[in-house]
Target: Isoprenyl transferase
Amino acid sequence: MSRHEQHSSEEQILAQLREQLNPNKLPRHVAIIMDGNGRWAQQQGKPRIEGHRVGVESVRAVVEAAADIGIQALTLYAFSSENWKRPALEVQALMAILVEYLKREVKTMNANNIRLSTIGRTGELPERARKALEKTIEATSRNTGMTLNLALNYGGQNEILDAVKKIVYDVRDKQFNIEDLSADVFVRYLSTAHLPELDFMIRTSGEMRISNFLLWQLAYAELYVTPILWPDFRKPQFYQAILDYQQRLRRFGDVREQTQ
Ligand code: IPE
Ligand code: IPE
Ligand code: MG
Model:
């Protein structure tokens, strides 16, 4: 098969998958644990960092695929509060890749009406990363399409603790009575308050764990774990995952399917 033929058959597969999608049953908010970059590189006999570099191509593809079908919010787990434990060189490389990604993608984000936001303790990131984030958030703040939400120095337990602290301060400052604290109030103190409810969580590389991601928000999200490593997860794999989501019966504890 020539390169051109291969390209057009990939396009055909993508178009077929897209046709199968039900536009009335899309998850509003999708989150992804982008895992397996290191193993992908190892399999090719390359340094782990090469896996992160190729992983950025998957980020590009999936962001475009999600925006294309009208997903409202996409949260990507890019750096966890535990990832600081990695060798300093790998952490530095991840930060450099982030800065480069933001610089390169701001135009595409604007062209696709995508707004950038972050969750996690971003104040603790290196200055270059903080500056690039601030700039890109500002440059895309007037966009009204999909929100691309990057989880950076994010940990679900820290997020809950930060929310509890704010609540305690607000109770002290008499913003509300402790008896009025409910789940609906609590979610307004989480860093995802600006996003629709989480419907679907994807994890690549086959690990059956949450790794401190979106602990509160995952309560009734549908889960999808694929053995595919992140650098190999592109548009067709993303649409395949969404198709899987559309087959699910969400009951939320009831006996019949609930349409939220
Ligand atoms: C995910 O891939 C990327 C980040 C955590 C930033 P990994 O680097 O965790 O790859 P594996 O899991 O070691 O293969
Ligand atoms: C989760 O992956 C964090 C990100 C994808 C950013 P990890 O590779 O850090 O998770 P564990 O160590 O396998 O749980
Ligand atoms: Mg990993």
Observations:
- The CA atoms of residues 116 and 137 lie 5 Å apart.
- The chain has a mean pLDDT of 97.
- The first strand starts at residue 29 and ends at 33.
- Strands lie at 29-33, 73-80, 115-119, 147-154, 200-203, 222-225.
